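Example 3.2
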Amino acid sequence: MTPFRFLHAADLHLDSPFKGLTNLPPAIRDYIRESTFMALQRMVQLAMDQQVNFVLISGDVYDLADRSLRAQLRFQQAMASLSEAGIHVYLIHGNHDSEEGARARLNWPKHVHVFSSEDVETIPYITPEGLTIATISGISYAKASVTDNLVPRFPTPSQGVYSIALLHTNVDGEMNHDNYAPCTREQLIRAGYQYWALGHIHSRRVIHEGSPFIVYPGNTQGRSVKETGAKGCYIIDVNDTGDTKLRFHTTEAVRWEQRSLAIDQLQDEQDLKDRLDQFITELRNELPGIPAVVRLTLTGRGTLHRMLQQGMQLAELIHELREEQTRLTNDEGRAASFIWIESCRVETGAEIPFEQLLEQESFVGDMLRLSESLLRDELLLKQLCQETLEPLLGNMKASKWMQELSLEQMQQWIRSARERNTDELSGEGGWST
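Structure, written as C-alpha cells:
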C-alpha cells in the first residue's frame, strides 16, 4: 500500500455574523468578523505545507443556507490555491449550507468534488502515477433538517483500498447540537470503513480509535464563548500497512476562553488591578500571536467581596482594561494581539471561619457538614441529584443530560450552593469569631 496523507476539517462557517459585537472597538470587531476567513487561509496553507494528497471538509462550509457571495468567492479562491498545488478536495454540505439554499453560479477548480444529496457517492483518489490509494464516500444535505439516519445508505467499501466516509451527523444524540442525521457509534463501526470524517459537533473528539477511526475535528474557528479552546483540523498519515495516525493543528485566528480568578489573597482595589494585569500578560504568553476574547469569573472568599457586590468599581476597572486594549490595537495599527474581557461575573463570598463553623451545632454547621459528606460520597451525591431533578427526567433530553453529568459538575453544584448559602447567612456584617 502506498503511504499517503490527508487533512480533515469541518464546520468552517464562513462569514459567520458573530452577533453581539456592536460595542467592540471597530478594529477588534472587524478582526473577529474576518476570523473565519483567516482560519480558512491557515487551513489551506497547512495543507500545502504538509503536502497532503487531499483535503476532506465534512459540512457547514458556510454559515447560512443563503450563503453570502463574499463567502463563496473567498472559498472559491481558497480551493483554487489547493488545486494549483495539486491537492484534491472532497466536501459535503450540512445543515447550515444545505443544497436548498441560494448560491451563486461559480466555476470550481477541477480538483474539487462536492458530493450530491441524491445518494451516497464513492470517488476513488488516484495518484498522479495512476494508483488508487483511497476511496472517499459521502452525501450532502438536501435540506437544513435531515432527520433520517444516513449510515445505512453507505455501501460496503471495497477491500484492499483505504476507505473513507464523510458524514455530517450527530452520533449518539450529542445534547448541545441538533440531532441531524442521527446514528450510533456502533453503526459507524460496523459499516466497514477505515476512517469516518465527521462534521456537525464543534468540539474536537475522536470517538473511536483503530479500525475505524471516527473523528470530529471540531470547527476551524470558534464563534463565541460557548466554543472555547483550540480550534483547527487534523492531519492524518496512513502508512504502507494502513496504520493511521492523527495530528491536530490549530487554524483559529482568535481564541474564545472562559477563565476564573480567585480573590482569596487580594486585599484591595490595587491588588485586583495588578492581578487582572497579570492575568492578561499570562494569557498573552500562553497564546503567543493569538488574540483572545475572555469571559472572566471572579471566585473565592475575601475582603474584596463587599466591594465586588456593589459592582461600580469592578465595572470601571474592566472598562479601563478594555480601553487599554483598544489603545494598544490603535497604536499598533492591527488587532492581532488583543486580550478582550467580554464580561466579568462575580461569584465570590465574604470571608468565613469555615473550620469553626463546621464544628458548630447550628443550622450553618449542619449545612456545611452535609455538603462535606456529599462531596466525599459519590453515590450519595448522585442519588441527591437524581431525586432533585426527578421531575425533569420524563423529558428525553433532560434524562440523557442527567446521565451524562460528570461527578465534577455535581460537586461544583454543591460547592456553589454552599458558598451562596453561607454568604447569605452571614448577614451584612459578615462572620465573627
